[in-house]
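Attaching the record inline, Q. Sequence:
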Amino acid sequence: MAGEVAKTQTNKVSFWKRVKAEFKKIIWTDRPTLIKQTIAVIIISAVICVIISIVDSVALQLIQLIVG
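Structure, as predicted:
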């Protein structure tokens, strides 16, 4: 039982060491690029939201026209 606990602790430490090593490999984007990309995502999301709303409204009107 004690051997299993020690092995589990070793695995946890090893896991976090590997996570830390992987984080050091990440190339983080600079702030201006991050801001531009965030704004682009927000704008594209808003445009898609408007398009989906229009398509939904048109579909609803067509269904109401068909159903009567």
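Residues 31-67 form the longest helix (37 residues). Residues 2-67 form one domain.

More tomorrow.
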